TrEMBL record, chain A:
GO cellular component, one term: ribonucleoprotein complex
One BP annotation, GO: translation
Signal peptide per UniProt: none
MF (Gene Ontology): rRNA binding; structural constituent of ribosome
Key words, A-Z: Ribonucleoprotein, Ribosomal protein
Entry keyword Ribosomal protein: yes
Name of the protein described by the UniProt record: Large ribosomal subunit protein bL20m
CDD domains listed in its UniProt record: Ribosomal_L20
Family per record: Belongs to the bacterial ribosomal protein bL20 family.
One Pfam family recorded for the sequence: Ribosomal_L20
TrEMBL record, chain B:
Classification of source organism: Eukaryota, Metazoa, Chordata, Craniata, Vertebrata
Similarity remark: Belongs to the bacterial ribosomal protein bL21 family.
Highest taxon, organism lineage: Eukaryota
Database matches in PANTHER family: 50S RIBOSOMAL PROTEIN L21 (PTHR21349), LARGE RIBOSOMAL SUBUNIT PROTEIN BL21M (PTHR21349:SF0)
InterPro entries, alphabetized: bL21-like, bL21-like_sf
A Pfam family recorded for this sequence: Ribosomal_L21p
Name the UniProt record assigns to this protein: Large ribosomal subunit protein bL21m
A GO CC annotation given for this chain: mitochondrial large ribosomal subunit
GO MF annotation terms: structural constituent of ribosome
Length: 123, 155
């Protein structure tokens, strides 16, 4: 387990025992952190790819989810690397959904009934 | 009424295209893609499949390894449903969230059912006389994706 270590840890039993134990503990903890690290990596890749198409990452992801496309970040990162045309079409879909959302948020443009607004002039 | 900072929204105003013209454009695109599929003018197909609680991007002659046990024997053919995306060079079909079963067909065969390499799980607190050691060997299955087929049943 320890023949590739550095210094006397690969030859002397006493030192090797300690370093092997630390190596095992660190690998068990790293297996849990690896998932977080990979997800952050995917997110940065997707962010870079969507910025190339003129969209920010939160806008991209939220609009994709709102249009009921449930692709996870790993696959989105792979698509952005190996299938640029597909990623461009997904970005266009998200952009279109974003604009539709803005229009829906604006509404009719009229004021609600029963309310009047008054402008006070100061002299 | 005077113009304040809140009269117009902070995002630039965008006009959506005409819905009637859009419907015509969509129908034409669907017809073209249907024609391409039925003529068979696509190269390699890739698909995004949801399998074993994970999403995979797969093509033909692909190997996939999953960290669990499948109830199929070695050499069994499996048809994967739950296809999220299918694409080729010129067109992609995006499911919302899934594509229909009469549109795509993904075939796979089970090749291998082994165990992973023995992973060592050690917890250790120094100076507290606390040490636990556990060796875990997960069962794994290896699948080979044979074919991905699409049928021209778009609407």
């Amino acid at each position: 387990f320890f023949q590739h270590f550095r210094g006397r840890k690969n030859r002397c039993y006493r030192l090797a025992v300690r370093s092997v134990r630390r190596a095992f503990v660190r690998s068990t903890k790293a297996r849990r952190e690896k998932k977080r690290f990979l997800r952050a990596l995917w997110i940065t890749r997707i962010e870079a790819a969507s910025l190339e198409h003129g969209l920010k990452y939160p806008a991209f992801i939220s609009n994709l989810l709102k249009s009921q496309v449930e692709l996870n970040r790993k696959v989105l990162a792979d698509l952005a690397i190996y299938e640029p045309k597909t990623f461009k079409s997904l970005a266009a879909l998200a952009q279109r959904r974003r604009q539709e959302g803005f229009l829906a948020a604006l509404g009719d443009g009229k004021e609600p009934e029963g309310i009047f607004s008054r402008i006070v002039h100061h002299h | 009424v005077a113009k304040t900072s809140l009269t117009s929204p902070p995002w630039p105003e965008v006009k959506l295209p005409d819905p009637v013209e859009e419907a015509k454009y969509h129908a034409e695109v669907v017809r073209k893609v249907n024609g391409l599929i039925s003529a068979g003018q696509y190269g390699r197909l890739f698909a995004v499949v949801h399998f074993a609680s994970k999403q995979w991007k797969i093509t033909n002659e692909d190997l996939i390894m999953m960290d669990n046990v499948l109830e199929a024997e070695c050499g069994d053919r499996i048809r994967m449903e739950k296809v999220l995306l299918v694409g080729a060079d010129d067109f992609t079909l995006v499911g919302r969230p899934l594509l229909g079963k009469d549109l795509v067909r993904v075939e796979a065969t089970v090749i291998e059912k082994t165990e992973s390499w023995p992973k060592v799980n050690v917890r250790f607190w120094r100076r507290h006389n606390f040490q636990r050691k556990k060796i875990i060997a997960n069962p794994q299955t290896v699948l080979r994706i044979n074919t991905i087929e699409i049928y021209p049943c778009l609407s």
